[in-house]
Amino acid sequence: MRTLGIGCALLAAVIGLTACAGTSKLSAVDQAVVRDADLYAIDRIEKNFHKSMSMQDIDLMMSLWAPNATATFGPGKTATGKREIRAWWKKSKAFLPTTHWISDTPAYKVRATANGDRGTLTFECHFIDVDKQNHIIPTAADIEVAKVNGHWLITRLIAGSAPKLGASGS
User: Fold this and answer.
1) I want to staple 71 with a disulfide (CB 3.0 to 4.6 A). Which of 66, 135, 147, 157 is the partner?
2) Does a structural domain hold residue 92?
């Protein structure tokens, strides 16, 4: 019985050391795979961001935010923490029950970076009013993201305006 206990302890030590050594020295291919997976997860934030507004799904929107995130929606309009951010979104026109918008972003206007557990995400939001069948002034977002408990989340958002379709540069 004592031999079994010592054997299990040695096995656990070898597995622990192997796991530690493996994580610090990933091959170039493995590093590229991890980076691609991170960029994919960050890109999913953009897709779910727009899906949440199109569907007016506040819970989906809030699932994208870190607990202590900040969101700046204009000069002097910064919300801190998920409670304040949720309250801001609930009052925004995009989430009003009388608003029927589709929120989309052109794929070529999405930019994402990943560096370890931190990254960035930049995109434009193009809103289409379904009832009036017209395009509404687009907005833009510069976002910082971080991997929190294994999930990529928004830590900081700064919203702004974007050029209207047909304007130079769009």
Assistant:
1) 157
2) yes
